[in-house]
Specification:
This is M23ase beta-sheet core domain-containing protein. This protein is mostly beta strands. The chain is built from 1 helix and 8 strands, in the order E-E-E-H-E-E-E-E-E. It has one domain: Distorted Sandwich (Glucose Permease (Domain IIA)), CATH 2.70.70.10.
């Protein structure tokens, strides 16, 4: 995925998200479903060009954590859908903050920094804990799991695997 976010950083200071960024994928050739105030409440993730896009390793490192069993849910592209997203996000935030990420992967880069990837597609992991990866290797696919309004990659650099 090679797109930039319109907001940098794209998160609040809660749950160690200060420097996280969301990377959507909106190529001009592929239409992205628009936001509608009331209907439809949401759309299937396959209607978004980001869904299923490859997520590549940004550097050489070792996989230190993965989660891959959470479902990909409908987009939240309406006012009721966004309200539901915020309510469910609040409930998820009461537990371990990584629950907000949905399916995720943490990579310890050779430079000593940890890279976190969130909202991955269920069943798409191409690596396992302990695997050594090199820059450019496909790790997984973009999905819509966790606290996500539409398919996109949640990416952040961290000091530790649980930061």
């Amino acid at each position: 995925m090679r797109e930039s976010s319109s907001r940098r950083p794209s998160h609040t200071h809660s749950h160690a998200q200060t420097y996280a960024i969301d990377l959507p994928h909106h190529p001009s050739a592929a239409a992205t479903p628009p936001f509608h105030p009331l209907w439809p409440l949401g759309r299937r993730p396959r209607h978004y060009p980001a869904f299923g896009s490859p997520v590549l390793a940004p550097g050489d490192g070792v996989v230190v954590a993965t989660t891959d069993r959470r479902r990909d849910h409908l987009s939240r592209t309406s006012l009721p859908g966004l309200a539901y997203l915020h309510l469910k996000g609040f409930i998820r935030s009461l537990g371990w903050p990584r629950h907000l990420w949905g399916n995720n992967l943490v990579l310890k880069l050779d430079q000593g920094v940890y890279a976190g990837f969130g909202h991955l597609r269920r069943g798409s992991l191409r690596v396992a804990v302990g695997d050594r990866v090199t820059v450019g290797r496909q790790l997984a696919e973009c999905g819509n799991s966790g606290n996500s309004s539409e398919p996109h990659l949640h990416f952040r650099l961290m000091r530790g695997p649980d930061s």
